[in-house]
Amino acid sequence: MTTLRDFQRASFEKKCDWVTGNSNFLVARKLGEAKVYLYHAGDFFIEVYYSPKYKKVLMINAFNNVSGLEPYLENVSLSDLKF
Predict the structure, then answer these.
(1) CA dihedral 72, 14, 22, 69 (to 10 degrees)
(2) By C-alpha distance, which of 70, 64, 57 is closest to 19?
(3) pLDDT of 27-74, one tens digit each?
(4) How far apart are CA 77 and CA 80, in angstroms?
(5) C-alpha count within 13 angstroms, C-beta hemisphere, residue 29
(6) pLDDT in tens, 3-19
(7) Is residue 17 within 8 Å of residue 30, measured between CB atoms?
(8) Which run of H or E residues covers position 34?
(9) Residue ranges of the domains in the chain?
(10) Rounded-to-10 torsion of CA 73, 77, 41, 21
C-alpha cells in the first residue's frame, strides 16, 4: 500500500499497522478532548485521532492537500531557522 487511495480503502487495522511501520510522526495538536497526531507517509499525510479518556484511536484520516495542514500551522515555528 503506497498510494493515498490504497490507504483510504484499507481496513482500520491495516491503517493502524501502516501508520506505525511506514510513516513519520510530525506534530500533535489538541481537538477538544482528543489528540490528533500528524504523520507524513511519502505522498500524503495521515491524521490519527486519539482519545486519552477512552485510550483508543477514534479515527484515521489521510489527505494530500495543503489545506489539510492548516490546523497545524500554529504549532510550527520558523524562528529557530537561520537565514
Answers:
(1) -20
(2) 57
(3) 999 999 999 999 999 899 999 999 999 999 999 999 999 889 889 887
(4) 7
(5) 13
(6) 999 999 999 999 999 99
(7) no
(8) strand 34-40
(9) 4-64
(10) -120
CA-nearest of 58, 47, 39, 43 to 6 is 43
The predicted model scores a pTM of: 0.86
Name the percent of the chain in helix, strand, coil, to the closest 5.
Answer: 35, 35, 30
Grid cell 500551522 — which residue? 73
What's the chain's length in residues? 83
User: What is the C-alpha separation between 66 and 57, in angstroms, rounded?
Assistant: 24
- CA angle, residues 60, 44, 11, in degrees to nearest 5: 35
Sign, CA dihedral 19-20-23-25, equals positive
